[in-house]
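Running this now, will post back.
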Amino acid sequence: MLLASVNKAVVLFTLLLCSQAQASIILSSTRVVFEGNKKEASITVRNMGSDEILVQSWLDNNTPGATSAPIPFAVTPPLAHMAAQSRQTLRILFKGAGLPTDKESVFWLNVQEIPKTAEGENILQLAIRQRIKFFYRPTGLPGTAKEAPEVVTWAIEGQGKAGSLVIKNPTAYHVTLSDVQIKGGTYSSPPITNFMLAPGETKHLNLPGVSTANALTLTAGSIDDFGAKNLYSTPINSTLTQLKPLKP
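Update: finished.
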């Protein structure tokens, strides 16, 4: 009985903690693209809660051990007071140098909600952080970000236990892929979700049990600049192939 009571208390505490940890802020987009011919990029933060909060914002490069590496952007305001049910525009300014001009660069925009100090004792408060991708896109890059998923090449390498899917991104753009799956005959690979190919990157994904003796079909999704998922498909074997858009 005592153990059951303890377990029930833990569950209730967890549910209470989760309910208290819900973010009050909403961002106007799931990613930010800074076009090289613009002076700045912006995103809107909305406080949907009934209390005033502080919002702290900054960029990082998501590289372990490189927290002190300089990032040539400034987020303004870095700290903002937001009243209940209010909006705040974050402006991101480029310092004008320090990044490649022949390919995209990617960073992470962090927006952290700091709640007002609660009155009373023994009150747990959490600072909730949201992170979204921030892309710097220089002018004059070949092709377009919209076309990039159809330029990426795919091929199956090896057979059986040694089988793998080889994906090459020859473009100057980052390509975010989701729900990558291969099916054919009795074979069906587990869906591979949410990974990103950097410009020029080659990725090998294990496909144990795959055989090009079967007629195989690859399906995949790609996330565009607006956060929408576009669906693609193509027959696949050991020869290089490219995705074709699926008709709605």
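Helices lie at 2-20, 148-151. More later if anyone needs it.
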